[in-house]
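For this section, I looked closely at the sequence of one protein beside the C-alpha cells encoding its backbone, which the following lines show:
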Amino acid sequence: MAQDATTYSLELRNLRKSFGKTEIIRGANLAVKAGERVAIIGPNGAGKSTLFNLISGRFAPTSGEVVLNGQRIDGKKPFEINRMGLSRSFQITNIFPNLSVFENLRCGVLWSMGYKYTFLRFLSGLHDANERAKQLMEMIKLEKKRDTLAVNLTYAEQRALEIGITIAGGANVILLDEPTAGMSRSETTRFIHLIKEVTEGRTLLTVEHDMGVVFGLADKIAVVVYGEVIAFDTPENVRANPRVQEAYLGSAVADAQAGGH
C-alpha cells in the first residue's frame, strides 16, 4: 500500500529544471522521512546545487513538485518556504560580520518567536529571545565568543555560527551546502559531531564532496548524476552499488573503506 505523502518531511516528484534548452534536473525523485540525515553526492555539474536551489525556492522548477511536510512549496519564495519549516545554509558563509555572535543568533530567532519586524522594541528586554539565543550559542559551542564580532571568528567558528542561525528559526528540515568545505581534518571531525548534535530530531539534507563526512554523517545517500537521482540508500548499500561506483564513486569508495569510514 502506498505511503501517505505527509509521512515524509520532503519529497521531490519528477522534478525538472531547464535553463533555455539545457535540462539540468531531469525528473528527480526523492522521499526523505522525518529525522533522516541525507547526503547528496555526485560529480561536478550533476545538478546538486540546482537541486538545493529548487528545494529552497531560489529557482522555480520547470515542472514537477517539491513537497515539504505534506504541502507543495515549488514556486514559493524562499522566505515563504523558510516560514513553512525549511532553512538553508550556503557554500559561502552567510552571517552578519559586524554583529557579535550573540546578536547574530538573536536576529535569527526574532521572527520565529513572533517579534517579526518590531525592531523598535528594546532587544535587551526580549527575555525569551535572549534566552533562546543563549541556548543556541551553547549548542554550537561558541558561548565563550558571545561578544566577539562574527568577522573576527575563525573560519570553522563562522561556519558553526551559520549553522546556529540556520536552526534558530526552529525549522524541522535543514539544508547544508558543503558545510565542511575549507576545513582541516580535525575541524571537519569536530564539525561532523556538531552537525549531528544540532540536527538531532530534524531532517537534514547536505551536499558534500568529502566521502569521510558523507559516510560519517548520513543515514542515507542520494546519488545525483546528470540531473537524476540514480540511487538512494544506506551508505553500505551505496558503497556496494556497481552503478554508483561506475558513475561517480570509484576509488573514493575504496579509499573510504580502507580508512574504516
Q: What stands out?
A: DSSP finds ten helices and ten strands in the chain.
